[in-house]
């Protein structure tokens, strides 16, 4: 595997929606369709088993990136914006959108839309959103990309073989994690035919999960579903080998 960024169209709009607990669901759309925020809320509802889409997270827990070509000069331009609660995830956003070292502009608070107390008032109704599952969820097609998959980390695994549940164990180094995520994201986006979810787990913060998954070195990629469970230890550079291990049932 090379260190190149994920394969993306020259012009696209990317939208990411975070939960207060730190999970992320995101979409990359070359056609720049409307209502993507709504679709991401629906995706969170499906994956976490919520009673309704968490529209109250918009816009305060969102980040957007827009890349377009100037019709006169034909030069490419990129604008990336995020709200204060998610600015700490800039390195992750750059990994997912294939934009190394891109500077994300922090959008000022808009009290009428981003009142923290209002968001906090939903905690009792949506406690799952405040739990940290370390989920990274790509949302590919409209309206429902996971017709057969609604599993969260603490819920039963899906019965359908046409989805993958992956866990990436890392050891807390931000720079190496960003590089690993960027490479793995490119591999999964280019090589897998079915939807997947990826859970990123820091073994220093969650040693019990590492013990449960029999992980003793990092990085380690675990295919938790479909069974049997498979593990890939090392720098995740052999593309053909990784895809073969992940895709073989």
TrEMBL record:
Residue stretches making up the KaiB domain: 167-248
Residue ranges that the Swiss-Prot or TrEMBL entry lists as coiled coil: none
Gene3D superfamilies the UniProt entry points to: Glutaredoxin
Listed Pfam families: KaiB (PF07689)
Matches recorded under CDD domains: KaiB_like
Name by which UniProt lists this protein: Circadian clock KaiB family protein
């Amino acid at each position: 595997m090379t260190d190149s960024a994920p394969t993306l169209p020259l012009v696209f709009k990317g939208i990411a929606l975070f939960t207060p607990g730190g999970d992320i669901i995101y979409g990359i759309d070359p056609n720049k369709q409307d209502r993507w925020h709504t679709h991401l809320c629906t995706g969170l509802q499906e994956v976490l088993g919520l009673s309704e889409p968490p529209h109250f997270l918009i816009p305060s827990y969102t980040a957007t990136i827009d890349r377009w070509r100037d019709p006169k000069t034909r030069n490419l331009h990129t604008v990336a914006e995020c709200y204060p609660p998610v600015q700490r995830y800039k390195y992750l956003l750059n990994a997912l959108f294939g934009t190394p070292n891109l500077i994300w502009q922090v959008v000022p608070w808009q009290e009428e839309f981003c009142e923290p107390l209002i968001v906090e008032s939903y905690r009792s109704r949506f406690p799952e959103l405040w739990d940290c599952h370390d989920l990274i969820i790509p949302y590919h097609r409209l309206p429902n990309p996971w017709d057969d998959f609604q599993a969260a980390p603490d819920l039963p695994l899906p019965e359908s073989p046409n989805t993958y549940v992956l866990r990436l164990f890392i050891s807390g180094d931000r720079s190496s994690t960003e590089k690993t995520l960027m490479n793995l994201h490119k591999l999964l986006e280019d090589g897998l035919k079915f939807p997947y979810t990826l859970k990123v787990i820091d073994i220093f913060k969650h040693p019990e999960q590492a013990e449960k998954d029999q992980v003793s070195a990092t990085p380690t990629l675990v295919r938790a579903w479909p069974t049997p469970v498979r593990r890939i230890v090392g720098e995740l550079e052999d593309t053909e080998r990784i895809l073969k291990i992940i895709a073989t049932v």
